[in-house]
Design goal:
The chain is mainly α and 440 residues long. 64% of the residues lie in helices and 4% in strands. The protein has helices spanning 3-27, 46-63, 71-86, 119-122, 128-143, 146-158, 176-179, 196-212, 218-233, 239-244, 249-260, 272-278, 280-284, 286-300, 304-317, 322-334, 338-351, 356-368, 372-385, 390-402, 406-419, 423-435; strands spanning 30-32, 39-41, 96-100, 107-109, 114-118. Helix 5 (128-143) packs across helix 9 (218-233), helix 9 runs antiparallel to helix 11 (249-260) and helix 21 (406-419) packs across helix 22. The relative contact order is 0.11.
Length: 440
């Protein structure tokens, strides 16, 4: 195999193709904004928004431990979201909604209409109107094409559309025990920070959408009030949300003013009891989720002993919780407890069949425990469930190499280098191909 030559040729062709595509797009970079009806600088088509969403959102949802296993909760979130989407400026987008198992407080939208809220934020809401405000706000980002607009500005300066699955978040070997080759995959610019003007517009549109379908706009006031309080009292607890959704007193004050003026005559509903009934399965394990939140805070500080204690408490309350088992697995791995880490990962895999992150974690820890065939089998299963993670390709190469199958290892390393050519992993892959005689 003459890999060195082909890698270089691929790189040049792709770069020329993308740059040419960007140049062509720059010549015709205007579109009508679906919200304002005005011409807007735009280099990303609606079809590109949808394709980028389909390619990247599944990785983020899996990184957030997948949708909650209680299907009734996800049906509920889906119903609320779809009712709002139908009244929005882009009702034809392929919207889909879910509550994910992540414990941090956040909600986010991909540009094609894939939207998620975490179970952490579900515990902070008081009624269905606040959930509608949250979903309406995220739908508004899709409607106003905020992500596509930001991407277009980036393309205008860089000349190419540089979005896709990446491995920057896993290049530091010290981080591998914590992310297991998963954190931040694909999200990149798609979930980067919105501007304050974007947030103001999303708040305004969110109130408009919720009012249209019969919710009390007071739900937006309640949401802003709760988030603003958390922003002041527990900034680290909601730092991920405010990294992408800048919070301010102004946003809360604006919601209050708009409720008293524009929506003064609104007779919408708050629906507190219905909300509480529909999230009963999440509320039931609130103490466990709060322990996991404390444990994740300790993990960020690399206080792994304290983190393990919090995760142990959480698992005593909710023994089969997928996120809890995965977090304990990562914590054990970070402490060098390879066998215990593998046991927790295998329990997580058994308790949530088909959710991809546990497959990857079992693969990683099987490598650590020198169970190479098991590692390879899990990486293969992961790749079928959730294709597009280049780290899986790299670790398959490691597995094949450990099993003495150089040809298969070389194929995986070559695939990895086609996507990523920097960092210690790329160096390992290149050195193996070179020393084995696969490069000129």
């Amino acid at each position: 195999m003459k890999h060195n030559k082909s890698i270089k040729n691929i790189s040049r062709r792709q770069a020329l193709k993308l740059t040419a595509g960007g140049a062509i797009a720059l010549l015709s970079g205007c579109a009508v904004n679906p919200v304002t009806g005005q011409q807007q600088f735009m280099l990303v088509s609606q079809q590109q928004e949808i394709q980028l969403d389909k390619k990247n959102s599944p990785h983020q949802f899996s990184a957030d431990y997948g949708p909650v296993q209680d299907k009734a909760v996800n049906r509920y979130v889906e119903q609320v979201g779809q009712s709002l989407a139908a009244s929005s400026h882009r009702p034809d987008m392929p919207y889909n909604f879910r509550c994910v198992n992540a414990n941090y407080v956040n909600a986010y939208a991909f540009p094609g209409g894939s939207i998620a809220c975490t179970r952490g934020i579900m515990l902070t809401l008081e009624n269905e109107a606040e959930l509608a405000a949250l979903m309406g706000h995220e739908i508004a980002h899709v409607n106003a094409r905020h992500t596509a607009s930001r991407m277009s500005s980036s393309m205008a300066t860089q000349g190419i559309l540089a979005i896709g699955v990446g491995v920057a978040a896993t290049q530091d070997r010290d981080l591998v025990p914590l992310v297991a080759g998963l954190g931040g995959i694909g999200a990149g610019l798609l979930l980067a920070s919105y501007s304050r003007s974007d947030e103001r517009q999303a708040d305004s549109l969110g109130m408009e959408y919720m009012d249209k379908v019969g919710y009390d706009p007071e739900g937006m006031v309640g949401l802003m009030d709760e988030l603003n309080k958390m922003h002041k009292s527990q900034p680290s607890f909601v730092q991920q949300m405010f990294a992408s959704h800048p919070m301010s007193e102004e946003r809360y004050a604006t919601a209050v003013k708009r409720r008293k003026t524009t929506y003064a005559g609104s007779k919408g509903k708050l629906l507190r009891e219905r909300y509480m009934d529909n999230i009963a399965s999440i509320r039931k394990i609130r103490p466990a989720i709060e322990e996991m939140q404390k444990g994740e805070g300790a993990m960020r500080k690399k206080n792994f002993n304290a983190a393990a204690e919090h995760f142990a408490k959480a698992l005593r309350i909710a023994p089969g919780d997928y996120a809890g088992l995965m977090l304990m697995s990562k914590c054990q791995m970070a402490q060098g407890n390879k066998k215990q880490g593998l046991q927790y990962a295998e329990r997580a895999k058994a308790n949530y069949p088909g959710e991809a992150q546990a497959l990857h974690m079992v693969g990683m820890l099987s490598l650590e425990n020198k169970q190479f065939e098991q590692a390879l089998a899990n990486f293969e299963e992961y790749e079928k469930a959730l294709p597009g993670n280049p780290m899986t390709t790299f670790f398959k190469g490691i597995s094949y190499e450990a099993l003495g199958n150089r040809d298969m290892a070389a194929n995986e390393y070559y695939r990895f280098l086609q996507i990523n050519r920097q960092g210690s992993y790329a160096k390992h892959a290149f050195n193996r191909l070179n020393s084995w005689g696969y490069l000129e």
